[in-house]
Design goal:
It holds the Pfam family HATPase_c. This is histidine kinase. It catalyses: ATP + protein L-histidine = ADP + protein N-phospho-L-histidine. One of its GO terms (molecular function) is kinase activity. The structure is a single chain. The protein is α+β, with helices and mostly antiparallel strands and about 525 residues long. It contains 13 helices and 11 strands. Helix 7 (about 245-310) packs across helix 9, helix 8 (about 315-355) packs across helix 10 and helix 9 (about 365-380) runs parallel beside helix 10. It is elongated, with a radius of gyration of 59 Å.
């Protein structure tokens, strides 16, 4: 395991310079100051403009009031030269752009403005200087304020202020950047350099990163260095563990195989024990009947002996007792034959399961033998097993594996397929499949299916069905080895394949296919299978 320090850095040094923290901080700070400066300059310009305009109006109005009477006398006396001279006098003011006079009788004096500009001019009324006419209006004076002059004055003032602000911001940026670089930038650069150290985790530097610094940056550097040291220690432990990992895995795997084999053996012995108990229970009936028949024969013989000793035996009594003994012997023969069949099936199944030897056997017959040993268990349930067997071939294989497959599949269907149900059936089918290979040679395989029509298996569990120790009955008697044993028997002993398909609420179907080596049946084998 190798962890490189610089491999974890997302940026190169050039990119880090372009996006450095100090650069970003200065840009954000100056940007904020610039926005505030623009707002401030806008407000200052508006206030300055209003103040300058008001001041221009006051100056113009004061000057006009000083020349009002001369204007009124000049207009009253129709003295055009004096009026134009007064107009030029007002126009000499710096803030005045244009002045003109309008009268109702003698016309206009000066060059009047037109349009919107005329509406913005200051307007003053001129009255008659005669006391007789009682201040009658004789005209109006229009004064147009020079906005360009005011704008020039404002631009000069605001321009000076803006220049001062820009100089201030530049000096402030230099000072802030210097302080930021000294307190934060250089320490962070030192930390980045530490992180860029080649093989940082494998061989971390020993010297303290920021000795004597006790602020937040110092705490961060100390914490980072401590974290690297811990990672270094963890890496050493991992490397030490990896050196022995393969041996440990091999040892643990061997132990797991031994445990699994022991569990499988225990499961097989448990199944065989249940088989013994079932067969023993099933033998009680024929053996009991045989015992009762033997007792009957004993009673008959005792009765006949007594009659003979007493010389009172009649022909009718003899015939009756002989007929009775004959019927009882028939009962004994049938019951003991039933017991012999049970013991024979049990013996063959038990031997096959324990010996794991390869031998010739009829495939369908081994299925029927296995189901015969399962009858004691099936009788206790409301479920039935339907057979559709068409693989009546003698094959050279492992009968114990086939028998255990049938037992596990049937028991799995009873335990899981019909959970919570009170009726149902299990269908076992067998078929012979022949496929043609090259040069006309045929390949024979046997396909066996076990189907139930129960609750089905959820899709999420289908891929786990054949995993060891997987069970939905954990803690309720399920070991999780039934289907794992089936998978092992099919793939290893029979050299075949096993698959499962299921639909919730419709049931589950297991399909087993394996190559069959067909052998010729001998007369002895045929006779044994018939009996």
């Amino acid at each position: 395991m190798s962890v490189s320090g610089n491999a974890s850095l997302p940026y190169a040094s050039l990119e880090a310079g372009k996006t450095s923290l100090s650069r970003t901080f200065i840009l954000y700070t100056l940007g904020l100051f610039a926005v505030l400066g623009v707002i401030f300059i806008g407000i200052l310009t508006k206030i300055t403009w209003d103040a300058s305009y008001e001041r221009a109006i006051r100056v113009t109005e004061a000057f006009f009031q000083a020349t009002k009477r001369p204007f009124e006398r000049a207009i009253w006396t129709v003295n055009a030269d004096a009026t134009l001279q007064l107009i030029r006098g007002l126009e000499t003011l710096e803030v005045v752009e244009k002045v003109w006079v309008e009268t109702p009788d003698t016309g206009n004096f000066g060059d009047p403005a037109t349009g919107v500009r005329a509406d913005t001019a200051l307007r003053y009324t001129l009255n008659s200087p005669s006391t007789i006419l009682h201040k009658e209006a004789i005209g109006e004076v229009f004064i147009l304020i020079d906005r360009n002059a005011i704008s020039y004055e404002i631009v000069s003032t605001v321009g000076f202020i803006v220049t001062a602000i820009i100089v201030y911001l530049i000096l402030l940026a230099i000072v802030i950047r210097t302080i930021f670089k000294r307190l934060i930038g250089e320490p962070l650069t030192q930390i980045v350099g530490y992180l860029s150290t080649p093989r940082l985790i494998e061989d971390p530097p020993k010297e303290e990163l920021m000795k004597g610094r006790l602020d937040e940056i110092g705490i961060l550097a100390a914490s980072l260095q401590s974290l690297v040291q811990r990672r270094h220690a963890d890496l050493q432990k991992i490397q030490e563990y990896q050196t022995n990992l393969e041996d440990l895995v091999a040892h643990r795997t061997e132990q797991l195989k031994l445990v699994q084999e022991e569990l499988i053996q225990a499961d097989n012995l448990a199944a065989l024990g249940a088989l013994v108990a079932g067969v023993s229970h099933e033998l009680n009936t024929p053996l009991g009947n045989a015992l009762m028949a033997a007792t009957t024969i004993k009673d008959c013989s005792t009765h006949l002996k007594t009659e003979l000793d007493n010389k009172s035996l009649s022909k009718e009594l003899l015939e009756y007792e002989v007929e009775r003994i004959s019927e009882t012997a028939t009962i004994i023969e049938k019951t003991l034959g039933r017991a012999r069949d049970l013991v024979g099936n049990f013996r063959q199944v038990a031997v096959d399961r324990q010996s794991e030897k390869k031998r010739s056997f009829n495939f369908d017959h081994i299925i029927r033998e296995t189901l015969a040993t399962l009858q004691p268990t099936l009788k206790k349930t409301p479920f039935t097993v339907d057979l559709d067997l068409e693989a009546d071939l003698v094959v050279d294989s492992y009968p114990g594996a086939v028998s255990q497959l049938v037992s596990n599949l049937v028991e799995n269907a009873l335990k899981h397929g019909y959970e919570g149900r009170t009726e149902g059936s299990i269908k076992l089918t067998s078929r012979v499949v022949t496929t043609t290979e090259g040069e006309g040679r045929g390949k024979t395989s046997i396909v066996m299916k076990c189907q139930d029509f129960g609750v089905g298996i959820p899709e999420k569990n289908l891929k786990k069905v054949f995993e060891p120790f997987f069970t939905t009955k954990f803690g309720k008697g399920g070991s999780g080895l039934g289907m794992a044993i089936c998978y092992q028997l099919v793939t290893e002993a029979l050299n075949g394949t096993i698959s499962v398909s299921s639909k919730i609420g419709s049931g589950t179907e297991f399909t087993i296919e394996f190559p069959a080596l067909v052998v010729e049946e001998t007369k002895a084998e045929k006779k044994r299978m018939v009996h």
